[in-house]
Amino acid sequence: MNDRDSERIAGILESEGYLNTDKVVDADLIVVNTCSIRQKAEDKFFSQLGRFKGLKKRRPALKIAVAGCIAQQMGMAIIKRAPYVDYVVGTQNIHAFKDLNALNSQIITEDNPQILELNFRSKRKNTLKALVNIMYGCNNFCSYCIVPFTRGREKSRASEDIINEIKELANKGYKEVMLLGQNVNSYKGDVSFAGLLRYIDSIEGIERIRFMTSHPKDLSDDLIEAFGRLKKLCEHIHLPLQSGSSRILQLMNRKYTYEEYLEKIQRLRGRCPDIAITSDIIAGFPGETEEDHNLTLKALKDIEFDGLFTFKYSPRAGTAASRLPEQLDEDTKDRRLQEINTLQDEITEKKNKRLIDSYLEVLIESPSDRAGFDFMGRTRTNKIVYVNSKNSIPYGSILKIQIKKANRHSLEADVERP
Ligand code: SAH
Ligand code: SF4
């Protein structure tokens, strides 16, 4: 979501005549787009900001703007702490970058329903894969999470706007879209989320559709049915579990039990046996006992996710979980995180090894960032494939390739004749 916002901010600034520079000392304007999902992100931001203080002193004409979730959450408090910041632009007010000088306040963080209609030029980072917002905000209030406070209430874009944006992307040669929303299943445009997928599936030129993220509590039958049926919908779902203990899930306000989650996984796999499932886990939520933690480890063994994003619980100001009395010490959280990661690493590697010799569809995306390989691509299940080829392969090609080797985080293949 932040990456997409950065693309839009860059696009707006470019259409206002700004040029991008890699050298911070050359900049007339520095925009820091921030994340506040965990304390670590917030700490990184303030240390980064500190480095700009000297620049501003030497060159008072330099403007510094802070955008994103920390901007939304802290507002004026940022300028109190760092008086050399000129503007604080919240998550729903990106349009302010159109004319910063015209702002009558340094802080702009109000609710803005017009976010849905904003259609400024954006400077996309990738030429094959595009991020497309389908909704903004979140109404779920999971007890640990700051997103509902920093991104506001759910707002869905009209399907027509989304489809027009994707048609335009297809015309420009984009092959893949990643639909973005905190919880795509609560998409409430003029069609259901599954309905939206059906429309997008028919757009010529687009070959792959992905989305992020789907909340397990309302993963609909309609969506499960779409897997394996819609040609372009990739066989991958990111479905955050958070904990394998139903007691902790309740404290997290996730609104599903572990058993209900498992049942959804079984239905997804029943519908689409090769689907890759990835997830998020939080280690050390307040009050998590050794028994709860063991249930999470057991869940990982039972489900065998294709990959996992793991997070050490981080108390966020204003959230319900931060007020729970039984906050765990850092050592316990660190150890549990480590145990989760070690177990999952084995599982990921084991699952990848099962793919050796199989033929998978790979979208060739870029030159290899790893020495010894020519290209990098991804399978429909979102696994990275490093490819060797004597001949050149145009980026954007989609090939069926036999997997020769599997590592923990990637697969390897040779292509004789593309
Ligand atoms: N809307 C998405 C999640 C967005 S946040 C969803 O519900 O799936 C991405 C992940 O960050 C969450 O799934 C959670 O695992 C993690 N996370 C959020 N708040 C956190 C916190 N306070 N401490 C640790 N991890 C957190
Ligand atoms: Fe946060 Fe829960 Fe909303 Fe995801 S669904 S953004 S975890 S509150």
Protein described:
This protein is an alpha/beta fold and 418 residues long. It folds into 3 domains: 2-110, Rossmann fold (3-Layer(aba) Sandwich), CATH 3.40.50; 121-353, tm_1862 like domain (pyruvate-formate lyase- activating enzyme, Alpha-Beta Horseshoe), CATH 3.80.30.20; 359-415, OB fold (Dihydrolipoamide Acetyltransferase, E2P) (Beta Barrel), CATH 2.40.50. 33% of the residues lie in helices and 21% in strands. It contains 12 helices and 17 strands. A 5-stranded mixed beta barrel has the order 13-14-15-17-16. A 4-stranded parallel sheet has the order 1-2-3-4, with helices on both faces. Strands 5-8-9 form a 3-stranded parallel sheet, covered by helices on one side. Helix 11 runs parallel beside helix 12 (330-353). The longest helix has 24 residues, at 330-353. It is globular and about 60 Å long. It starts with a helix and ends with a strand. Residues 138, 140-142, 145, 147-148, 182-183, 215 line the site of iron/sulfur cluster.
